[in-house]
Specification:
about 270 residues, alpha+beta, 5-stranded antiparallel sheet, 10 helices, 7 strands, elongated
């Protein structure tokens, strides 16, 4: 038996729902931050593909299909995330970077509640752990117990989770509460702020130049039979630094100094 990301809470039903309501607000605030980070990642990838093509490297943009449809970059970013969310729902396959869902399963147990947490976003779990009312209550039987938990406590957790997992009555089998309420409208000013923080000019020059060099080496017949570690070693070498410096000069001719709302809104 393996029970991870689980908690115990002593509370009335009313108190539990109040605590979950508070947690839900924090989850959705965090979801806005995370989605804007994903937007900024996609925007940087879009800019890289634009620069790569100007340097005669074929590289498709993650926004390509949306921009062909006449959408602005901002609208394309929103629908790219939205489509990824819908794909997760339809296929049941999780793309973790685009899976913002958060569910808890609640089990009444004696005068307490047990809670199992489910989400691909570690940030939500970190938020939950900051609330002292929710006490960590994991259990597993395939490896040793954590050193900070007594043997008596560990054995008691085993008994509790076995009882909970074997309950088949509706009233005791637990119920699920969905905490993520869905993708929020894109906030352009916030996106501009985050993307400029996450991807400064220098960061993008460094990142893009390495990618360009890797693409050029991949097309070089002298490198096509090389091992991956040889490529990594070469990129760290002085010879590669000379090539990277030349590429950086090329990149800076096309790089956006700072993202603006006007630029993102243009078709």
């Amino acid at each position: 038996m393996k029970i991870y990301n689980s908690f115990k809470i002593t509370a009335t039903m009313g108190e539990l729902h109040e605590l979950l309501n508070e947690f839900q607000e924090l989850v959705n605030d965090a979801a806005v931050e995370i989605t804007h980070e994903r937007y900024s990642d996609l925007l940087a990838a879009h800019e890289y593909s634009t620069i790569a093509r100007k340097l005669s490297i074929e590289h498709s943009s993650p926004l390509q299909n949306y921009l062909k449809g006449g959408f602005s970059i901002l609208t394309g970013l929103y629908y790219k995330i939205w489509d990824a969310e819908q794909k997760n729902k339809k296929t049941g396959l999780s793309l973790p970077q685009f899976d913002f869902t958060c569910d808890v399963v609640i089990y009444p147990y004696q005068n307490q509640f047990l809670l199992k947490f489910f989400s691909s976003q570690r940030r939500y779990l970190d938020i939950l752990r900051t609330n002292s009312r929710f006490q960590e209550y994991d259990y597993w039987d395939d490896t040793s117990k954590p050193p900070h938990i007594s043997q008596e406590e560990w054995e008691h957790r085993s008994i509790v989770w076995n009882e909970v997992n074997q309950n088949i009555t509706w009233a005791q089998s637990g119920y699920t509460r969905e905490l993520y309420t869905g993708l929020k409208p894109l906030m352009p000013n916030k996106l501009k702020e985050i993307v400029n923080q996450r991807y400064s000019v220098n960061q993008r020059v460094e990142m893009f130049s390495k990618n360009i060099l890797e693409h050029r080496l991949a097309e070089d017949t002298n490198w096509q039979n090389k091992k991956p570690f040889e490529l990594i070693q070469y990129i760290k070498s002085p010879n590669a630094q000379i090539a990277l410096d030349q590429i950086k000069v090329e990149i800076k001719k096309h790089l956006v100094e700072k993202y603006t709302i006007e630029m993102l809104s243009d078709n």
